[in-house]
Amino acid sequence: MNYFEKMKGVTKSPPAVSNLEVILSWFGAFLGMAGIGLINYLYMGSQENSLMIASFGASAVLLFGAPKSPLAQPRNFVGGHVLAAFIGVAIGKVFFTQPWFAASLAVSTAIAVMHLTRTLHPPAGATALNAIIGGTKVHQLGFAYPLFPVAVGVFILLAVALIFNNALKNRRYPEFWL
Prior knowledge:
The protein is mainly α. Helices cover 66% and strands 0% of the residues. The protein contains 7 helices and no strands. It has helices at 19-44, 54-65, 74-94, 99-117, 123-133, 136-141, 146-167.
């Protein structure tokens, strides 16, 4: 098979999901993100959105839209985000004068470490990236960033995923813990 033939793909698009699944995915993601937003509002004030990081939106897609995916399981979700956050901060501190290089190195290193630790969670790449490009507030957090907002936000979203996905007759979460 030549190089360009590989790009054709080998399977068809995945089947459509039911309207009920669409509604459940929407509602679960809404509750998960609202949980993070509400805790943020109650403890940080309405002007501070430090708990609401973009990669959590992508994680909500997996936790509520594809809860059976290996990439959505607690080991991957928690481990991926926290490891990636530590990696992003560490690389950002060393290569702070070259943010383009730090960003590239943080994301690629996070992927490698997640592979090695079996915690691959695609949205965590954005968590590592955010440690570099997140601005002054994120940089001021330093090594607190992996704990707050990352670990706190992860555990809020995980709690909602556990409660919501297991309250439904046709869903179960997680498929595995470790």
